[in-house]
Amino acid sequence: MLAARVYGNEDLRLENVEKPRITSPEDVIIKVKMVGICGSDNHIFHGENPFVVLPRVMGHEVVGEVAELGENVKDLLVGDHIVVEQISYCGKCYACRQGMPNVCSHLEALGVHKDGGMQEYLKITAMQAHKIDKSVPWETAVLAEPYTVAGNSTTRGQVGIGKTLVIQGAGTIGLLTLRMAKAKGANVMVTDIDQDKLNFAKENGADEIVNTKNESLKEKVTKWTNGEMANVVIDAVGLPQTFEQCFELVSVAGAIVPLGMSEKYSHIAQKPIMQKELTIYGSRMQSYQFEPVIKAIENGLLIDGGVVNQKFDIKDVQKAFDLMNNHPEQARKIVLTFD
Known about the structure:
27% strand; Quinone Oxidoreductase, Chain A, domain 1; single chain
């Protein structure tokens, strides 16, 4: 079967590999139908992800059909449509006991610590296989995993009815976080430096949009909230300057959620954290978000709505990464297909 494996910086190879076999009674083998390319995959493609072990088959936004089942898997049938959970965890460490398996001491993530979904068949555990109704198009189902990231960040930040939320960054995760926050009843402002992305955010429910290239974000937030400032700020960019700016945008008793990731240092004084009594919530991937997200997708509450705008056959995976890197304005969400 075909698999796309990265060996180093921009060294991506399409290889023929052996199809996985059932080796445990809890195993599930998925015939992959579609895989989303995430920004973190692009970091791996460029050799910039500090967690990945190379060579590696990338891909953690995976949907497909059940092809084979281990003998102990009783709640799935061959042919069922599946959304794949990207993480596996021990269930015993402190993080797992706290209900946070996404930061398990023994965490393994598909496409990072073990081979992911950019291959024709993928073996996972039954715990990672989430059934989704067959009426849901693959283009929508493939967004379930990034929607869980949005669900986790809004849950961590306690986003809810009537709260004001500023989302920094109108990329794919920013957009899906916007939709998730609107579904939870929040008033949402989205910021970016790309006007086309902001216009799309407005079309998808943003109450306010701000182009920070030519507008003062602090002034806009002050006016929008009548001086209260935002109850929650989610940084979906992950640059030191965007994280630092969160502290002047957030209200007293507010919450900041760093969702983007940078290894660069930010310069933040302690005073605003103490004076405003702020809470800073890290948000990494997701914990127990698949069930509510899949239900919301099946009920039409969370949709595709044009987020997926580029499709490539797995044989053209190099072209997909070329587009992502050379023409990012054309690549809202790229998916690989396996037809």
